[in-house]
Amino acid sequence: MARRHRLIQVSPHVVWDVLADGHRYAEWVVGTSRSEPVRGEWPRRDAAIRFEVPLGPLRLVNETVVRHCEEGVALELEAHAGVLGTARIAIELREWGEHSLVIVDEHPLRGAGGTLHNIGFDALIQLRHRTMLARLARLCEHPAPHERDARDIREAPHLVPVDRAGPGREGPAHA
What we know:
The chain has helices at about 10-20, 25-30, 110-115, 120-140, 145-155; strands spanning about 1-10, 35-40, 50-55, 60-70, 75-80, 85-95, 100-110. Residues about 170-175 have low confidence and may be disordered. A seven-stranded antiparallel β-sheet has the order 1-7-6-5-4-3-2. The chain has one domain (about 1-145): START domain (Alpha-D-Glucose-1,6-Bisphosphate, Chain A, domain 4, 2-Layer Sandwich). The protein is built from five helices and seven strands, in the order E-H-H-E-E-E-E-E-E-H-H-H.
C-alpha cells in the first residue's frame, strides 16, 4: 500500500474543485495525456472518465470509476489499466488551518498489478504520488487567470463588481 500526503496552501474546497472536474484529471494524474467524463456525473458514485496513456506511438485508453464520494472530503476511485488490472486510489482532504492536507492511498485490486505487488512496486507508486500531488498543488495554488477570477467570486460572494457608469450612463465621459 502506497500512502503519501502533501499540504496544499489553499482551502479544501479549492482542491475539491479541481478533483471534481473530470476534464482536469489528466492535468494532475501522472501518465495521462487526456481525460473526459463518459458516464454519470463526475465525481458522483459510479461516474466514469476515460483517459489516455501515451506509450510511444501508441495510446492506451482506460477508464477510472468513482466508487465512493464524500463531497469536499473524500474521493475513492478504481482505475482500470488493461492487462495490469485495477487499482484503488483514495484521496482524502483535511482542513489544516487555512490550508488542505491531501492524503493519497493507493493499492492494486485485481490483475497483474495485484499479483506482482511488492515493496518495489510501492516505491514506484510513491514517486508517482509525489509528482501527482505536486501537480495538484500547482493547479490549486497557481490557477490560470480565468480560474482565479471565478475563485475570487466564489470565496467572497459578498463582493461583487460595481458598475461605475451607473444606470443610463456610458462611462467617465458622461460624468
